[in-house]
Amino acid sequence: MKRILGTVVLACVLAGCTSAPSGEQAESEPSGTSEDPAPAAYSMDETAQPAWRTKLDVVGQPVVVDDVAVVLTQPKGDLHLVALDLTTGRELWRKPYDPIAFPMGSTLAPVVTKDAKGRDLVVLRQPAVDVEERGFYYAPLQAVLPRSGKVVGETGRGGVYYACPDGRNVCLDGLYNYSGSPLDPGGIGPVTGGAPPSRWDPLHPRRESRRLGGPDATFRLGLTDLYATRMGPQRIVRLEKSKQLWSRTMTAAFGPRSSTGKGWSVDYVKEADVFTGAVGHTFASAVYDRYNRGRAVTYEHDEIYQVVGLDGATGERLWRIAGANPFCGLAALAEAAQAPPIACVVDGRTTEQQDHDIQRRGLSAQLMSYDPTTGEPTWSIEFDRRTAKDSVLDNLVVRAPSGAIVGTSEGLQAVDLADGSTAPAPDDLVTLCSDSVEKVGESERNGGTLFFACTPNGEPTKDAVTEWGVASLPETAGWRLVSVKGRVLGYQLD
What we know:
With 494 residues, this protein is mainly β. It has one domain. The strands form 10 sheets. It has a 6-stranded antiparallel β-sheet with strand order 32-31-30-29-33-36. Strands 1-21-22-24-25 form a 5-stranded antiparallel β-sheet. A hairpin with a 5-residue loop joins strand 31 (411-416) and strand 32.
């Protein structure tokens, strides 16, 4: 099953989360459990030695395209995109990288695509040039060859950019204009106009971008052909081949108090033609006022978290899983494991107050695989309280070759996300973990996650990672790459 994973914007609840109306879920069991240690095609005892190490002030994980790895760095706070030879780690080229197109709070990552002839390209925006000469802000968007860095196409078109859903050329979100001025006492007003999303062919740099259809100022939700509007009451729109297939209000699609302004996590299950995920939850203004006055605010997790399924053909909401946190890092592992969709379902309540520790009561959570057409669970695993907090709410991910290590009533278990089977994880195992996104300079944007060596309970360790831990990384042409603090490592496993 192919899943196209959407953009994930992480935020604390009062800054932006999702709502979850009440609902019931059927109970189910994982496909199999074992009392034997987790089976390992790679050794749990032998440490893995990297074939190469390249020192870089790296942010986020590398993206491999052909025989090149591209990764974001920020030496002395300035962002650059750096290309490395896949087999040696040798730096091939670096270019300044301007994140201005991406909204505050978004996660930056290298963008790769193919041109109309199937040739691999890396896409990035350069810092503004000749501003005084031109009389306006011009930050060129460039398409370059992965190995040489040679520019094969350039456009001044603004907006968020990404590989088009068909994997060819470059698509850009719709541009938009605000009323008023940020210098006015009232600040920036509502969106009043703009342009629709477009498609740019780098092979024809002088050709105008082709419009993708849909309303002006529309932007894409993740790596899908689902879009959201900015003008007027917010709507969800599906665009395909420059045509609008359907449109739904945000409330009809995701429920009341849902807004992309608080983040989103949207996936697409191609075989089922179903969009799964949610957008952020907004509280009533009185709740924000109470919190900003220093008063305590309590909320139920199953009221603010949810995952829904939308029919790709009509936009009709098919089902809702109450309490499913769409921003849970464990769920993102399902694509790498070629597994069905995964949800982290949490129950209990949380109290937040300025200058006070967060209080959680009645906290429980489970990892659940579900049928994308019905939302019905196919297997589920109950977490212990520590995993419920660390992994579901605080985004700790302890990696395993086919899934993750989680805490249960039977101890730490390695879960195979393809079928929910589990096996005990040895206490002395060293694997890889991630626990947060890296902030990028002063740009108020994120740079993805850095990994670190850890024990099965997620504690950092100075011990070397085992072959089993390295096998949790995606493989490309026999290579597994990982960004850790201050360097990129390249591994080959026999």
